[in-house]
Design brief:
Layout (H helix, E strand, L loop, with lengths): L1 H23 L4 H12 L7 H18 L6 E2 L1 H10 L8 H11 L3 E11 L2 H7 L1 H4 L8 E8 L6 E10 L5 H6 L4 E5 L6 E5 L6 E5 L6 E7 L5 E3 L19 H15 L1 E2 L16 H7 L1 E2 L1 H14 L3 E9 L4 E9 L2 E5 L14 H4 L3 E7 L4 E4 L16 E4 L1 H7 L18 E2 L3 E2 L7 E2 L29
Parallel strand pairs: 1-3, 10-11
Antiparallel strand pairs: 2-4, 2-18, 2-19, 3-4, 5-6, 7-8, 7-20, 8-9, 12-13, 12-15, 13-14, 15-16, 16-17
Keywords: Cytoplasm, Cytoskeleton
Protein name: CEP76/DRC7 peptidase-like domain-containing protein
Subcellular location: Cytoplasm, Cytoskeleton
């Protein structure tokens, strides 16, 4: 009896030693996997990564059949979701949708679906109905997984959304989309903006601080650009006498623009749309243009000759939108009309004398846009003050566009069954491209203001 007990003890010791050695060398991995599968009812070889791949494939397979664009994984959204999902409450999907929209303002609309189950394969089946009806305009998705406290249930959150492109003139030109994502350079507020393609000239205003920070316009080919980029560096081969004063040279250029640019409204323009813009070279070749075309023509030439000049977009009295040029020479400010009158050196159009009814909304030169520093501020006739005008370089705007991070919202973790909600849509009209009053539109006949008793010389109507 004692011998038999000793034998069994030796065999048991050898078995334990062998098992310990096998476990140390990884020989029992298959047994561990089998045990975990037996306890949880889940295939342990089926990983979270494989689950996401299969889920995306299922959704895109349906979209391929419907000839819809395939959804892409959004790394930014995925990263945020991985950090936030462990503490998210899943019992209110509408609240989840609002959180996603607040955290990810780049998305025009999102659709959220949650599911819970004992295994990843079970979760995949729960997402079947949702994957059959994603909206055609959706572009990206992200998914996150977490285990319940006991480890017996897996929770999943799937987000499908329409991610917007960053705003830029090139994006407007290349895309048929109406909504874009932008960030205000004044107050850093991220927002969605909408483009009205019936308008060839558009001003972008922040919905929070109400300040304009970009103006774009389309040329005759339909290509959008920032308005200052219409000042292309025009420098015709003109020769000026060496002994000419700067003021005389100013009037010579002004007169040449008048002689070579007949005021003409854009042919075929509709009342509900603004017209296409021209570069200086376009205007010279055609010999015609409307107020902003001739103002660009005049300002571009003056800048090439070293003058301190800007194109101003704004209002003249109650006659509607208009465009003109302001120039500063020897501390004197001149207001030049490019469509009216005839330059008269004996009667220089000083801003202090003729500028009382001109109200500029926006100005620009080749490199920058100038907007009011304070929205709605009264106009006192100062075209050059840094206190009145804020200088913006439009191209630097593009580098400021970034993802917005709102304040963190807390949530309590709880179990949830499968939920589904209709896509929540943001109204991009809250932050639209607005047609600024200062951008030229149809208006009544406009005339150059002249001193009392002096006859008007050679005027042309401006509409």
């Amino acid at each position: 009896m004692l011998a038999r007990l000793l034998l069994w003890s030796i065999l048991l010791g050898l078995t334990l030693a062998g098992g310990l050695m096998a476990h140390k060398n990884g020989k029992l991995a298959a047994w561990d996997l089998w045990f975990k599968e037996w306890m949880s009812g889940e295939d342990q070889a089926y990983s979270g990564v494989r689950f996401e791949v299969d889920l995306v494939d299922r959704i895109n397979f349906v979209r391929m059949g419907a000839r819809q664009p395939l959804l892409k994984m959004d790394i930014e959204l995925e990263t945020w979701l991985e950090s936030e999902f462990p503490t998210m409450a899943l019992d209110d999907v509408n609240a989840l949708t609002r959180i996603v929209q607040d955290k990810m303002p780049r998305y025009l609309q999102v659709s959220v679906c949650t599911a819970s189950g004992p295994s990843l394969r079970a979760l995949l089946d729960q997402f079947h109905d949702f994957s059959q009806k994603t909206a055609p305009e959706m572009t990206h998705l992200a998914c996150a997984l977490r285990r319940s406290a006991g480890g017996l249930v897996t929770h999943a959150l799937l987000i499908v959304g329409q991610r917007l492109e960053d705003f830029s003139p090139e994006a407007i030109t290349a895309s048929d989309q109406e909504a874009f994502f932008s960030t205000c350079p004044h107050c850093q507020h991220p927002h969605i903006v909408r483009v009205s393609r019936a308008q060839n000239s558009l001003g972008l205003e922040c919905p929070q601080c109400r300040r304009t920070y970009a103006v774009v316009a389309a040329d005759e080919a339909g290509r959008y650009r920032f308005v200052n980029e219409f000042l292309t560096g025009y420098a015709p081969p003109a020769i000026f006498a060496k002994d000419d004063s700067r003021v005389h040279e100013l009037f010579t250029i002004w007169a040449a623009v008048h002689a070579n640019c007949v005021y003409t409204k854009d042919p075929g323009s509709k009342k509900e749309s603004t017209d296409a813009w021209q570069t200086s070279l376009d205007t010279q070749r055609k010999g015609r243009g409307d107020c902003e075309d001739s103002a660009i023509f005049l300002c571009d030439w003056l800048l090439s000759r070293g003058f301190q000049a800007r194109v101003a977009l704004g209002r003249y009295g109650d006659m509607g939108g208009h465009a003109w040029v302001v120039v500063k020479v020897d501390d004197k400010e001149y207001l030049l009309e490019s469509t009216e009158g005839r330059p008269d050196p004996s009667n220089p159009p000083l801003v202090s004398r003729v500028g009382s009814r001109y109200v500029p909304e926006i100005m620009f030169d080749r490199f920058a846009l100038y907007v009011h520093s304070t929205p709605g501020q009264g106009w006192k006739g100062d075209y050059w003050s840094g206190k009145v005008w804020t200088r913006l370089e439009p191209r630097s705007l593009l580098s400021r566009i970034q993802s917005h991070v709102a304040k963190d919202q807390e949530g309590k973790t709880s179990s949830a069954a499968s939920h589904e909600v209709r896509p929540a849509r943001r109204e991009p009209g809250l932050a639209p491209f607005v047609e600024l009053e200062g951008i030229p539109q149809d208006a009544a006949v406009w005339q150059m203001p002249l001193p009392q008793g002096q006859e008007k010389l050679g005027g042309k109507p401006r509409h």
